[in-house]
Amino acid sequence: MEQRISLITLGVTDLARARDFYERLGWRGQEVEETVFLQAGGSALVLWGRDKLAADCGISDDTPAGFSGVVLAHNVRSAAEVDDVMRAAAEAGAAITRPAGETFYGGYAGVFTDPDGHPWEIAYNPGFPLADDGSLTIPDFG
Amino acid sequence: MEQRISLITLGVTDLARARDFYERLGWRGQEVEETVFLQAGGSALVLWGRDKLAADCGISDDTPAGFSGVVLAHNVRSAAEVDDVMRAAAEAGAAITRPAGETFYGGYAGVFTDPDGHPWEIAYNPGFPLADDGSLTIPDFG
């Protein structure tokens, strides 16, 4: 298995609402067969009906929705940019689960959940520099 | 907000078990402060304690574990490669939730869950070609 992730699919209960949320944050994608594909670097974020996603995986979805156990992070280049994205997310209808503030690793970050409860951390981490194209390379902790 | 994902963090209940699982599939990473970082293209997969991850997000984790609502996909270049990865995952302790088979989109795919129940689809999708570096570009559906 090569070390890469091709797609990250978020199960949603209202595709139009989910697409609108990400579009209000500036994301653009394509909808085909009730699925929205949003390019994200060399991977793609996908929005698809949660019921279809569970069935497609052969997994039952019969427990109450709670913490998904998966968090997506979007790293930015400054604390001010964290504040900008957190404000835009709140305006687009996100729930702020952790207001932006200083972090234990010397950065600045906040967390919101999208309309389906998927958490996003928006983080400025001076120890994880971003390339010009936004890609992130884990530093050598050696 | 730029259109990209920096980190994908999976909450795990046993970090050593989770790391061992991904290492048996050929992934390599670095552990620092009870967190495992595994480079994945221009993003990184991160393994971290589920309890810490929930607390860090300001989200309570008090519902029974069920379908996370998030699925990671690893696309490969042939049906035979799907079979290879699915076999390796089963040998590493994955649960096969959907055995590999032909898909409605003319491809071939299967789904397994890792030791913490995070689903991975292993897919050969002839409509989503991969670049030499493994990156995926969503085709123009227009």
Secondary structure: number of strands of chain A: 8
Query: Can you tell me the CATH class of the largest domain in chain A?
Result: Alpha Beta
> Residue ranges of chain A: pLDDT <50 for 5 or more in a row?
none
Report the C-alpha radius of gyration of chain A, rounded: 16 Å
CATH fold field value of the largest domain in chain A: 2,3-Dihydroxybiphenyl 1,2-Dioxygenase, domain 1
Helix content of chain A: 10-25%
**Distance, first to last CA of chain A:** 25 Å
Instruction: Output the CATH homologous superfamily of the largest domain in chain A.
Output: 2,3-Dihydroxybiphenyl 1,2-Dioxygenase, domain 1
Average pLDDT figure of chain A:
94
The greatest interface here is: A-B, 77 and 77 residues
Instruction: Give the overall shape of chain A.
Output: globular
Query: Number of helical runs of chain A?
Result: 3
Specify the CATH architecture of the largest domain in chain A: Roll
Spatial strand order of the main sheet of chain A: 1-4-3-2
Largest sheet report of chain A: 4 strands, mixed
Helices and strands of chain A: which structural class? alpha/beta
Estimate nothing, just give the exact number of structural domains of chain A.
2
Percent of residues in beta strands of chain A: 25-35%
Oligomer: homodimer
Element order of chain A: H for helix, E for strand: EHEEEHEHEEE
Pfam family, one (chains A, B): Glyoxalase
Domain VOC (chains A, B): 4-125
Organism (chains A, B): Haloechinothrix salitolerans
Protein name (chains A, B): VOC family protein
